[in-house]
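ok posting inputs for the flavin-adenine dinucleotide job
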Amino acid sequence: MSILEYLSLKPYNTFGVNSTAHFFTRVRTTADIISLIEDHFQYYKKILILGEGSNILLCNDFDGLVIKNEIIGIELIKEDDEHVWIKSMSGTNWHELVIYCVNHNWGGIENLSLIPGTAGAAPMQNIGAYGAEIQDTFVSLEAIDLKTAETLVFNKEACNFGYRQSIFKSTEKNNYFISSITLKLSKHPVVNTAYGDIQKTLGKNGIKNPTIKNVSDAVIEIRESKLPNPHDIGNAGSFFKNPEVEKAVAEKIKKEFPAMPSYDLPDGKVKIPAGWLIEQCGWKGKRLGDTGNHDRQALVIVNYGNATGEEIRQHALAVQNSVQQQFNILLVPEVNIIL
Ligand SMILES: Cc1cc2nc3c(=O)[nH]c(=O)nc-3n(C[C@H](O)[C@H](O)[C@H](O)COP(=O)(O)OP(=O)(O)OC[C@H]3O[C@@H](n4cnc5c(N)ncnc54)[C@H](O)[C@@H]3O)c2cc1C
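and the output
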């Protein structure tokens, strides 16, 4: 395992930010990461585990060791008449895992097609889209303690999943290397087409009794039409989470903006689309230098070419401030900000 010095991370983050890693290495087996922890960790000021860099904003050069996760593989570990248990190594591309399962007609993650990134980062923020989240099929994950190199198993309960949240993004952030995940998928899948856009796309394509492959294809079509491709324009998807506010707060805003979209949550709170709030503040399609808010989806902050991570962070702060001033709602970043 070679350790490179002063490597540009531009190809390794979807914002396309040109940050330099003081040290950089790739791990291809769990033995690699364990020997790194046991033999080398004391030399580095800090560590950054990197998947495909699709949910990070690198604000500065990284004065530590970046560990690029390339531990790949998919394995069927158990099955019964109804279900399969699939173990994926954490460096496997998430969409490749989805397509592998769809092609075997194992249902449960097809609505999460085309989400960028690795399988190991997926539980970090309980990835979700189009009416599904990874927690719906999640069984457990294996994680290596970055201090002791010990491997631990976390079941679903231990991960404490929430909306774009888990212990790995909160109380245990930077404490573990997630090395594999195990999902339980259905051999007799029931499609989940409750999300309006999926129904519309299936209808437009004349599909009456959709399979999970049809649902996956529909999700891919919707995502390609709505979200900017990071290969064309740097971004990390939704920059902020959708805020969940008290009902009284939402009702107050609705009096002034009757067209405000909102979703009632089981706990009595109300979810408001962050993109709508940002749009009301005039940010949609607005460009300042090389950063801006995308013209089709205001929630996506973009790098038009040569923006630095700090410029993007300052742009995000300006967006956050104006939403707070106009609506008294503090938007919380979904993207992991690396200072
Ligand atoms: C165009 C676009 C669309 C997106 N759409 C969605 C969406 O619909 N839903 C959604 O939920 N997300 C979405 N995202 C965000 C992103 O795809 C996910 O968060 C994804 O899981 C990140 O994976 P990654 O491998 O790129 O993680 P990275 O960006 O490399 O890392 C993210 C964080 O996880 C940590 N990490 C990564 N791997 C490990 C590991 N093995 N062990 C421990 N820590 C680790 C990193 O240190 C970092 O803090 C989108 C992003 C883009 C660019």
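notes: The chain has a mean pLDDT of 97. Residues 234-338 form a domain with the Uridine Diphospho-n-acetylenolpyruvylglucosamine Reductase; domain 1 fold (CATH 3.90.78.10).
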